[in-house]
Every structure is written in C-alpha cells, then in structure tokens.
Known about the structure:
Blueprint lengths: L45 E6 L2 E6 L2 E6 L33 E4 L13 E25 L10 E28 L4 E17 L9 E21 L3 E12 L3 E14 L2 E14 L4 E7 L5 E8 L3 E14 L4 E12 L2 E15 L2 E13 L5 E9 L19 E10 L3 E12 L1
Amino acid sequence: MRKYSLALALVALMPFVSASAYEYKQSGKAYYTTPSVKTNTYKRASTSRKTGGYSNVITNNFYYGQPVQSYAPRGTYKNTGYYNPEQKQTKAVKKSYSSQERKFFLANPFFQPLQGKIGSVTDLSYARNSFNFDMLNGTVYNIDPASTTYLGSLYGEINPILSGKAQTGQFAIKEDLSYGLTDTLSLVLMAQYDSTKITFKDWSDPTAGTDSKSDSGLNIFGIGLQNRFVDTNEWIAMFEAFYQHQKDAANTFMGAVKAGYKIDRTTVYGVGRIAYTNLIENDIYGIYVDNNTGDYLMLSYNTDVKNILQIEGGIGAFAVLNKYFTLNGELMYGHYDWHNQLNIKGAIGWQPADSFALNIYASTSLYDSAKGKTRQYMNNDINPTIYPKDSSDNPVFTDSKHLYTVGDYKIKDYNEWKIGVQAILYF
C-alpha cells in the first residue's frame, strides 16, 4: 500500500480522547458479490413454413421437421418422353414414410431436463464494477501502545478532497448440473471458480500510484431445485429454490418464480427473485485491498450488518428465430441491500444439434442509486511515514507506528457490466 494514498490534511484540532469508537471488525473476505442471474430453458410457439416438400413447424418453442407423405407412380417411357401403348406398362409405387424431428431449444429460460435426463450449463464470463469517489473527512486514531499519545484521535475534513477510482474485475467459470427427478422437477448442483482483482487508482494526488489485490479459487458451491409447475399451450411457470455458499464470506438462500405467456414463436415472461444472505464471520462488507505489512484500505458498502436482503423483479422475452437461432432479453429492477439498480440483459443462442447449444450474453446497468451515496471507509497504516496535521499545520502522532482512520467517502458514479458465453449440453 502506498503510505501517502490516505494522508489526511486535517484542519480541525480536537482534544485527545479515548478511541473506544475503534471496534471495527475486519472482514476476512472483504469482497462480496450479489448472486449472478442464471439463464436456462423450455418451450413454446406455433408457426409453420413449407419448403422443399417439408412442413417445418415450431410449436411451443420446439422445432418439428415433418416430411409429407408422397406417392410417385412410374410408367415406361421411350427416350422421346412419350408413352408407348404397345409396351407393357409397369407401375411401381414409392412411399416416403413420415418421420418427425423434435428439437428442444436449450437456451430457453424455462429449460429443465426431463426425467432421467441431465442438463449441463457451463458459463464463462467476465464482469466489471467501477466507480469514482471522493474522500470527505476522517478521524485518525493513534492505536500504538508505545506512543506517548496512545489512544489519541484527531478529526477533520480532508483538504483538498482526495479523489480516486475503485474497480473490480472478475473472470468466472460456473457449472450448473441439473438432473430430472421427474418431467417437472429437477435437482441442480452448482460450483464456481473465479479470479477477482480489486484496484484503487486514478488518485487526485499524482504521487499516490495504484494499489491492487487479486484472489482466485473455487469459491462458490450450491444446490437447489427447479419445478416447472405449469406448462400448457398458453402458459408456463417455474419455481426455483437454491442454497449457495461463498467461501469465507456468506451463505445465501434464494428463491425465484418465473411465469410466461406463449405467443406464436415468443414467450413473454415475468420474473421475481428474493435472496437472504448471512455474513459468516463479520458484520461489514465492501471492497478491500491489503498487503503483507498489514496496511489496508476498505471502501465499505454497509457496516454493522449480519443479514442482507435482496429483491428483484422484471420482464423478459424468449424468441425462436428459426431452427438454429434464438434471442432472449430481460429488463430487471432490484433492491440490493444498500443500493437499487435497473439492469438490461440480452442473449443470442445458436443450437446446431439437439443436445448442444451456445448462448452468448451481455448485461449492463442502466441506472444505479449508488451515485451520490455517502458510505464509510477504513484505512489501517502500519509504520506511517506521513502524519495528520492540526489546525496550526503541525504534524501529530509522530511517534506512532500504528494509525487507523475511519471516515466518509462519496460515490460520484457507479457502473456494472458483464459479458459471457454458455455452453449447454443435454443428454
């Protein structure tokens, strides 16, 4: 960590008081992510087209290739192409028997395997979250017991305001494996490997440089059930319930209901989701960068909290374009504990075979209430090299080897986006 990245020029001198307010519990896994939205599949539509003697039909989002029966009488002809009545006529009948091709579109958001079947969705994605911020003020605590000013504190506004940018990027590979217990009920197992990098950069102090931290591993495991409890010629509905464990961070219980109305080749649907998360070890979460000396900076999203409630709802549409391609779009609005967000997502699916499909998707936030919010930051400084100053511009706590600062920061803007590809197998 750059020692000077949080050097506070405090212009107000306060009496030295007991730092009993310093009871912050450091988060062992300081970065917590909201559950990702999963896309899956099932059926609808009713349109036909004739070409080359075939009546190809899309019904309930299934593709049917239906050859028509044909009878081809053959007689005996001369090379002239005229019929010779003096020759004995022979007649043969060639019959083409009907066969039916049934194609299950795997990128459908109502997909689940039938009884005894297995569905696999392998999701490779990259997501980014970023925002610019201003540090507004701070209270510096001297918590070095060997210092002559031990347990002293100093509060003041940061002058000039220290600005920077926080950025989080994550590569993830997620596997959802589902097994059909019945034709309408399936068991789902999930796991995710991810690599996350958090960076603080673009400081208004040109000497501050860049601080970052990376973490990777098999961090998410889960189990759940899917139940497609309605599926008629016009309506389809599904209920989902999942338990998810994020390593060293949180346990989450999620429930979702999706209901759709089938219109020709398209299913228009609504979605509602709710998630309850319990933080495992601590009562704070946000983004966090530390180093091996013990220095760290945390921009918290919420403090003094053990349980997190998130609710989202929205609308979507799934359309079958032809035998090979599908489109899917969703518009979602959600309350995610400390902020609200409007998000849009689009996907295009390609299915060259009955048992394999690729689904390419992208999503981004259109609006986020995080902009303009004031949250709390924490900075731990071991062996400081720059010290806060009093109103007379004199440095204080100069014999301390451990300073801790807590203060307010303001989010100037907030953006999230994600791109990914899903490989879907059905066997």
